[in-house]
Amino acid sequence: MPKRGMVVGLIVGATLMAACGHNSTADQVASSSILVTKVNGKLNLTSAKQASLVDSSGIIQHFNTVLFFSKTVILASQLDNNQSVIFKSFDEGKSWHQIAAIPGTVRQLNFPNSQTGFAVSQTGVAASSSALYETSNSGQTWTKVFNGEVEALDFLNTQTGFAVMKTASPANSQSNAYIFHTQDGGKTWGKIASPLNPSVISASFSFVSLKQGWLLAGSATGAGTQVKYLYETVDGGSTWSKVTQSPSPGSGPEPQPIGMLPASGFVNELQFINASQGFIQLNQGSFLETQDGGKTWNEFQLSGLPIQSEKSILQFAAWGPSSFSVATSRMSFWITTAPNQWARVYPPYRDAGIFSGESGLYALSDKGELSSVETSSFQQLLSRVPNGTIQIDPFNTGIMAFATSKIYFSADGSHWRQVPVPEGWSLMQGHFISSDFGVVVANDHKVPGSAVLELTNDSGSTWEKINTKFYPYAIDPVTTTSWWALGGTEVSNTSNTAQLGAKEMLWNLYYTGDGGKSWDEFISNWHFVGGLDFVSTSEGYVWIPGKLYRTVDRGSSLRALIFLLKWVLKGCSLCRLHLGGLDGLWEAAAIRFTTLSMPGRTGDQIPDQGGFMDCLHFLSVLLRYQFRANREAK
Predict the structure, then answer these.
(1) I need a surface site. Which of 28, 352, 377, 385 has the fewest CB within 10 A?
(2) Three-state secondary structure of 244-311
(3) 226-247 residues labelled b (16+ CB within 10 A) or e (exposed)
(4) Are residues 146 and 117 both part of a single domain?
């Protein structure tokens, strides 16, 4: 029969801190992980079977560039294998639609009007592999119009545009940066004489009219610093003059003059809203404002925006002196609703857990809000769950909510009544298959190793202890008598020669067909476990850090689903796997977290360096992955 998903690990605080202690062994872009990830559309099983994998099309998971065309219309690109998928939102970023794909990694999007747009995409490791693409139908299709090392781009209309490009210098073998101009939609470009420093490696344009515009450029970087130059044109780009610059290397330790561009931080984005007022956002630096056309700059406080989001701005748009839209590398979109007041519009919620069952898919937010997830981008708030709730257990006649010492029941997700639980219990995990019958893992002595299985047949009015030959960690009842469990046994730690008699816990899979009177043990000897979910007495899944196992023969064999990824899940015991849904669709989700070792800014990870605090603060974004596999006929 269809069955709800299972979540393991109610003691979130301790488990999460343990998960944070694992350093990522991934390549330069990995500081968090997910359980199931797209790998060329295939999941590889150890058997001959394969399962196709598709992620929900309305969920942006990691964007590398964003364009705010207006307050309501936003475009974003997301790297997917060797191409960038283009998403579009018409509601400030609340929901998203895939509209196209462009080869390579899109580094900039630029639209002079609603129909015509341009994209700079890099197809290789070297910047010289970049190309310019054009669309004339609002991003539905794209055509390559130019190959060149484009560092910055801005089109004033469909034909006229400016770019900072690097070309080989006749005097040496290095590439120097120059300002270029096009009058035929980017097909051909001509160099403009300008005072631009040839060592520039990053830049951003901003025009307020066809005549007046600015260019912010940054040269080679140092330890957290970069020399920055601001140039201005008042004749449509024919000539450019330097307005100001930041201190040069070796200028000494003297205090920086007030109003000068700072040495710290790296050029990311420049935007003027009129001839006098403009803003600069610096990566690993400040958000700055000018009110005199760029001559002086001062730090601008985005008051009301959470500090983690302010420090991770990827792109922004200024609609007025105190009206902004912001996209962050934490994969969130924010807007100002009033001066100094911000609202997060995407993701629609941050979930502390995602749970599925016969009554649907649900998300539990970090604020204790329970929502039903109607589609990949829409969720309906049902109610606030009782205080302390960490896990919910949906079934066909209601929902159970588990806290660390209490259980609650609701028939509609809105009104809750407490299920009787003996005084002093610490609930570690559990599941109900109806409002009457459930089995929990409870620790009534609050010391390691004292957890036991407890059963109720009468909605918690009475509880019966189930004796086991193992230390229970997780339980998954399929029926009132058929249960699967993960449990541990203590064995001698032969690898610890320094401490005589040292013990360690090894974890195995267990099954009972008689309500816990006897148990079959399936030796696995795992050192760490995550959770389990069984769809029948014969078929189910077990996951441990980095691996997902499947059995179809009641545990006689476990076949690993192999994820051939450089940034596959490492050390996360908070993964959520949920089986069920229509037509055999299975759903998997995971809490994302930063590790203590983070290699720096990436488009899909959290760049903040306070890894441990971020791990506790930034629990998760809802990530849903659906995959379809060949299943044996029932």
Answers:
(1) 28
(2) EECCCCCCCCCCCCCCCCCCECEEEEEEECCCCCEEEEEECCCEEEECCCCCCCEECCCCCCCHHHHC
(3) bbbbbbbbeebbeebeebbbbb
(4) yes
Report pTM: 0.62
The position carrying tokens 């956002």 is: 281
Read off the pLDDT of residues 118-166 as tens digits, 9 standing for 90 and up: 999 998 766 667 899 999 999 999 999 999 999 999 999 999 999 999 8
DSSP state of 29: T
Amino acid, single-letter form, for residue 411: A
* CA–CA dist 163, 215 (Å, integer): 10
> Phi-psi category of 22—alpha, beta or left, where left has phi over 0 and alpha has psi -120 to 50?
beta
d(CA 101, CA 96): 14
**Helix H or strand E encompassing 47:** none
Please indicate, yes or no, whether residues 78 and 99 belong to a single structural domain of this protein: yes
β-sheet with 471-477: strand ranges across: 471-477, 483-492, 503-512, 520-526
Assess whether 75 and 35 both reside in one domain: no
SS3 assignment, position 129: helix
List pLDDT tens digits, range 438-483: 999 998 665 555 789 999 999 999 999 999 989 999 999 999 999 9
Query: What is the Cα–Cα distance from 603 to 611, expressed in whole angstroms?
Result: 17
Concatenated DSSP letters of 329-341: TTTEEEEEEETTE
Answer whether 178's CB lies under 8 Å from 191's CB: yes
